[in-house]
């Protein structure tokens, strides 16, 4: 028996990289323990696993090491189950575009809150900076000012001109990073730039919906030349806060959580309570209206993301 890292999941088969740099195609033996998490997939990219050869010579996964964290999205079926997108992540890179397609602040905030809930650092990658007008670049700078004021790192990137790529390489060096974002934001293009020799298929933007055409079907992990790994994930549409009680959502809006001691009530939900420091900050202009709208949207979500 040996240890390995799951670098690709295709449903029933898993690609596992062992300590000698050899990649094995493995199946799962019977039922592996899932640490009490109800999900559609027992094993995810980024998992550390135990593997061995069975009586037929086929490689099988026999156990999963404890995860330090994981990121979930809601299952596409109608069940209450969720899918683990990736595990054991150091950094979540959210690829944001102003157009082709547009990334809403609501999506950004939901992604960040999810990463916060699972103790994963988020870096915002403002991509396609070569296609924006001067006015659009002002909007990009406003987004950067907003999220950096809260405490998040941002980097302006263009895969066409090379802007920001060296800075991004330095930020993710030696780390396990997960790329997230809508389809069409250029995640596969970025990986092609960050990992020499990669030729991941990239998709065109649908002119009708201005959304990306899905090119990644399963999550996959790639080794970075500077050390570390980067995980490509399918375009996340139903990315949600799974298993987080409504009364804890504000814990993951970090600037709201900092204000909690100034609220009149220690269990303030920042919705309509008297003496709320967050509402006062909203009125005084120190809390961003877009962040507060995102917070209310998550709290009001009735899509089954709380259990």
User: Structural class given helices, strands, pairing?
Assistant: alpha/beta
State mean pLDDT (0 to 100 scale): 85
**Shape summary:** globular
Query: Helical content, roughly?
Result: 10-25%
Low-confidence stretches: 203-216, 303-307
Report the portion of residues in β strands.
15-25%
Q: Secondary-structure element order, as H and E?
A: EEEEEEEEHEHEHEHEEHHH
Please give the order of strands in the largest beta sheet.
10-9-8-11-13-12
First-last Cα distance: 38 Å
| Computed CA radius of gyration, to the nearest angstrom | 20 Å
- How can the largest sheet be summarized? 6 strands, mixed
Question: In DSSP terms, counting alpha (H) and pi (I) runs of 4 or more, how many helices?
Answer: 7
Count of β-strands: 13
Explain what you see.
The protein is of the alpha/beta class. It has helices at residues 105-117, 134-150, 165-172, 187-194, 254-259, 277-284, 289-300; strands at 2-9, 14-18, 23-28, 48-53, 59-64, 70-74, 82-87, 91-96, 121-126, 153-156, 175-180, 220-223, 228-232. The strands form 3 sheets. Strands 10-9-8-11-13-12 form a 6-stranded mixed β-sheet, with helices on both faces. It has a 5-stranded mixed barrel with strand order 1-2-3-5-4. It is globular and about 70 Å long. The two termini are 38 Å apart. The model is unreliable at 203-216 and 303-307 (pLDDT under 50).
């Amino acid at each position: 028996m040996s240890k390995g890292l799951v670098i690709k999941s295709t449903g029933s088969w898993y690609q596992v990289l062992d300590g000698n740099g050899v990649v094995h195609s493995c199946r799962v033996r019977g039922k592996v323990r899932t640490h009490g998490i109800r999900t559609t997939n027992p094993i995810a990219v980024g998992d550390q696993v135990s593997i061995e050869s069975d009586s037929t010579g086929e490689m099988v996964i026999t156990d999963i090491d404890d995860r330090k964290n994981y990121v979930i999205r809601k299952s596409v079926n109608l069940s209450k189950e969720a899918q683990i997108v990736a595990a054991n992540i150091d950094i979540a890179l959210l690829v944001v575009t102003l157009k082709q397609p547009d990334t809403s602040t609501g999506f950004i905030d939901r992604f960040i809150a999810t990463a916060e809930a699972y103790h994963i650092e988020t870096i915002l990658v403002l991509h396609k900076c070569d296609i924006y007008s001067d006015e659009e670049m002002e909007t990009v700078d406003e987004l950067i000012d907003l999220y950096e004021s809260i405490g998040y790192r941002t980097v302006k990137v263009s895969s066409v001109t090379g802007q920001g790529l060296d800075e991004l390489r330095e930020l993710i060096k030696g780390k396990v990073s997960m790329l997230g974002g809508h389809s069409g934001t250029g995640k596969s293009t970025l990986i092609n730039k960050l990992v020499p020799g990669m030729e991941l298929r990239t998709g065109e933007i649908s002119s009708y919906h201005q959304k990306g055409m899905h090119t990644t079907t399963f999550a996959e992990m790639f080794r970075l030349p500077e050390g570390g790994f980067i995980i490509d994930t399918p375009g996340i549409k139903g990315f949600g806060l799974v298993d987080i009680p409504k009364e804890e959502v504000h814990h993951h809006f970090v600037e709201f959580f900092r204000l909690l001691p100034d609220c009149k009530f220690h269990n303030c939900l920042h919705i309509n309570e008297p003496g709320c420091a967050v509402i006062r900050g909203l009125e005084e202009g120190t809390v961003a209206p877009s962040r507060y709208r995102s917070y209310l949207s998550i709290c009001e979500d009735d899509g089954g993301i709380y259990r």
